[in-house]
Design a protein that fits this description.
about 35% helix; Aminopeptidase; 2 domains; 8-stranded mixed beta sheet; alpha+beta; about 30% strand
């Protein structure tokens, strides 16, 4: 068995063929994320491919992040909820992890983070405080409507009464999406990625990305960025503006997302990542979604405690409060330079 770092077009094709057939593969494993990450952030990548007798038997995409705030770390995959080890056998899994550890050491990185949707039984420490929530979709809108409880149907009807409209598209809606999303991120106290990142994603996966914008009286009040793979679509980034919360735009947004996704042939709606017990977790649960723990595994070159680079860390409370008070134009200018330093 051989482990190599993919670089040429032929290996890229082998990688994509493997991802297209492996039952545990996700959109996060796809080859074109390599281009997205390199073009958006300028980070190096190491896409590890395991092969035996000419046949691919494992894959692991790695991104080497260099942060002036937190030092170096290696992730699979940063910003997303999955993208960790894929392997056909324990041997392939073991060799991929060994090579990932070597990449981490060579990068003088403080840790390696592997994001999985399920427990692979790796002999590595893990965090499971992050979850995703999934909801089955039905192409019959009436059946899907009746599957909601009475309280939720009332809330959605109320949101429909305010005269909001919905538009789905792609790159043509990115500016409106970014306007809503970056404003909400400022209000949450979190730096936003550059708009270049989202444009790169749409250009890399034009057939699998969908942008939704909700408007009220001509102004965008909510938006979502979805990525599909096989029969599952994930609302990876969704937001609404605080000044429009009385319109219940999130209720209107998500009901329209369900209907659109079902029409597109998707059968499972993934609400994206949440922290257990958070407000967003509770919001998603009320739709009848199932909570599924995410398993993020870590390898640390020198042992020690797991990294705590997240907004829930009390050390960042002051910075978050200051960011919330920042003028939006300044937050949009500075945000991408800081966001690229976060895992």
């Amino acid at each position: 068995m051989n482990i190599s770092i993919c670089s040429d077009p032929e290996q890229a094709q082998s990688w994509e063929r493997y991802i297209s057939t492996h039952p545990e593969a996700t959109y996060c494993h796809r080859w074109n994320w390599k281009r997205v990450i390199e073009n958006s952030f300028g980070w190096a990548t190491s896409y590890l491919l395991a092969e035996e007798k000419g046949a691919v038997c494992g894959a692991l995409p790695l991104v080497i992040q260099k942060s002036w705030l937190f030092g170096n770390f290696v992730s699979s995959m940063p910003f997303l909820n999955a993208g960790g080890v894929l392997a056909n056998s324990p041997e392939a899994q073991h060799l991929l992890l060994e090579e990932a550890a070597r990449v981490t050491r060579d990068a003088a990185a403080g840790h390696l983070e592997l994001r999985h949707r399920s427990d692979l039984g790796l002999a590595l420490p893990a965090r499971t405080n992050k979850v995703t929530l999934v909801l089955p979709l039905d192409p019959d809108t009436d059946k899907m409507w009746k599957s909601l409880n009475t309280k939720m149907r009332t809330k959605v009807r109320k949101s429909m009464s305010f005269g909001m409209t919905t538009e789905f598209g792609g790159e043509n809606l990115l500016a409106e999406f970014y306007s809503v999303w970056s404003e909400n991120m400022r209000d949450l106290g979190t730096p936003a990625y550059s708009p270049v990142f989202f444009r790169e994603i749409v250009q890399a996966f034009p057939d699998n990305t969908h942008v939704c914008v909700i408007r009220h009286e001509g102004r965008s009040v909510a938006a979502s960025f979805l990525i599909g793979f096989r029969d599952r679509v994930e609302a990876v980034w969704s937001s609404s503006v605080q000044r429009a919360l009385s319109l219940k735009p999130n209720m209107f947004l998500y009901w329209n997302l369900f209907c659109f996704a079902a029409r597109q042939g998707y059968r499972l709606f993934d609400f994206g990542r949440s922290t257990v017990g958070s407000g967003t977790h509770s919001f998603k649960l009320q739709w009848g979604a199932e909570t599924i723990p995410l398993h993020w595994n870590y390898w640390l070159p020198n042992g020690g405690i797991l990294p705590e680079i997240n907004p829930q860390n009390p050390k960042y409370e002051l910075a978050i409060r200051a960011w919330r008070k920042m003028p939006l134009s300044l937050a949009r200018l500075l945000g991408p330079h800081i966001a690229r330093c976060l895992p």
